[in-house]
Specification:
- The protein has a 4-stranded mixed sheet with strand order 1-4-3-2.
- The chain has one domain (8-88).
- It is built from 3 helices and 4 strands.
- The termini are far apart.
- The protein is α+β, with helices and mostly antiparallel strands.
Length: 89
């Protein structure tokens, strides 16, 4: 199930290197993000994402792995989605 549009998808070199080093398929993370599996978020952040999907606001996901986290952020206007590491924000 797709909850919103991704727009143009981009990823930082750091996020791509992290995924490659940890054998993570970035497309699977995008699929989780689109389906409303926003990863390791608090209940308040999940509620904010539900609201964001309903009201065209920014959608944020955070996926935690043994070596760190990968964030996926879709802009409010749905023009783009970026995959990045937290320290690249």
């Amino acid at each position: 199930m797709v909850l919103f549009k991704l727009g143009s998808v981009v990823a930082t070199p750091g996020a791509l290197q992290f995924c490659e080093a940890h054998k993570i398929n970035p497309l699977l993370l995008l699929g989780r993000h689109l389906a409303g599996d926003w990863g390791d978020l608090t209940a308040d952040d999940v509620a904010a994402n539900v609201h964001a999907v309903q009201h065209d606001l920014r959608v944020f996901s955070s996926y935690k792995f043994s070596g760190g986290k990968v964030w996926v952020i879709t802009e409010a206007d749905r023009s783009s989605t970026c995959m990045l590491l937290p320290d690249e924000y």
